[in-house]
């Protein structure tokens, strides 16, 4: 399992890199490169929810584990848990 941090320009990358490893219990050496969303002044989008530490994306390199987790998620949302 690996992860990546995505956050908006102007936020602290240092603070985000301190916050996420403890929360997801994953060492920083298993993180992919941080993605920083640039501010687009000419865009009509208004970002209302800019999270202080960004968001964390989980990536799996083992397809069997990925399928198992996706099955659990599917079961939760379809009320078919046994």
Account of the 3D structure:
By secondary structure, the chain is of the alpha+beta class. The chain has one domain (2-78). The protein is built from 2 helices and 3 strands. The protein has a 3-stranded mixed beta sheet with strand order 2-1-3, with helices on one face. Strand 1, helix 1 and strand 2 (35-37) form a beta-alpha-beta unit. The radius of gyration is 16 Å and the shape is extended. The model has no long low-confidence stretch (mean pLDDT 83).
Strand elements, count: 3
Discrete helix count: 2
Strand arrangement within the widest β-sheet reads: 2-1-3
Binned strand content: 15-25%
How would you describe this structure in keywords?
82 residues, alpha+beta, three-stranded mixed beta sheet, 18% strand, extended
Draw up the topology in text:
Elements: E1 2-8, H1 13-24, E2 35-37, E3 55-59, H2 63-78
Parallel strand pairs: 1-2
Antiparallel strand pairs: 1-3
What is the compact description of this entry?
34% of the residues lie in helices and 18% in strands.
């Amino acid at each position: 399992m690996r992860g990546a941090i995505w956050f908006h320009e102007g936020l602290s990358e240092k603070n985000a890199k301190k916050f996420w490893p403890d929360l997801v219990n994953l060492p920083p050496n298993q993180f992919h490169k941080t993605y920083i969303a640039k501010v687009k002044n000419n865009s009509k989008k208004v970002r209302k929810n800019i999270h202080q530490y960004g968001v964390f994306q989980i990536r799996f390199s083992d397809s069997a584990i990925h399928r198992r987790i996706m099955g659990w998620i599917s079961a939760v949302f379809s009320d078919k848990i046994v």
